[in-house]
């Protein structure tokens, strides 16, 4: 897979879109269940953060398909792990 580098301009646009999404009814419905997209744990809706499956820096968009609710734990894992380590983390979650 090609490593896509997003331009500053694109990043700014997508961050703005993410802010709008976070304020939308769609997002409120999305977090109402309190389920983390990655680990499936149930947490308080206010503890869910909007996470980009494909990060913006890697060319991800703030589309509904690319934005999912993530618990704090998964979110911090994702920020600190390398992409390959994050894949391993997800794989572990899938295996239970
Ligand atoms: Zn989680």
Written overview of the protein:
The longest helix has 15 residues, at 8-22. The chain is mainly alpha-helical and 96 residues long. The mean pLDDT is 93. The chain has a single domain (8-95), classed as DNA Binding (I), subunit A (Orthogonal Bundle). The protein has helices at 8-22, 25-32, 72-80, 83-95; strands spanning 49-52, 67-70. It has four helices and two strands. It starts with 7 loop residues before the first helix and ends with a helix. Bound molecules: zinc ion.
SSE map:
Layout lengths: L7 H15 L2 H8 L16 E4 L14 E4 L1 H9 L2 H13 L1
Antiparallel strand pairs: 1-2
The structure holds zinc ion.
The site of zinc ion has 8 residues, from helix 3.
Strand line-up across the major sheet: 1-2
Give the rounded overall mean pLDDT.
93
> What CATH first level would be assigned?
Mainly Alpha
Any idea what the shape is?
Answer: flat
The helix/strand class is: mainly alpha
How many helices?
4
* Strands, count: 2
**Sheet bearing the most strands, described?**
2 strands, antiparallel
Overall CATH architecture: Orthogonal Bundle
Rounded Rg: 14 Å
Per CATH, what is the topology? DNA Binding (I), subunit A
Low-confidence runs? none
Q: Bound small molecules, which ones?
A: zinc ion
- Distance from N terminus to C terminus (CA atoms, Å) equals 28 Å
Order of helices and strands: HHEEHH
Beta-strand level of the residues, as a percent range?
5-15%
Helix content: 40-55%
Number of domains: 1
Keywords: Endonuclease, Hydrolase, Nuclease
Pfam family, one: HNH
Organism: Syntrophotalea acetylenica (Pelobacter acetylenicus)
Domain HNH nuclease: 25-76
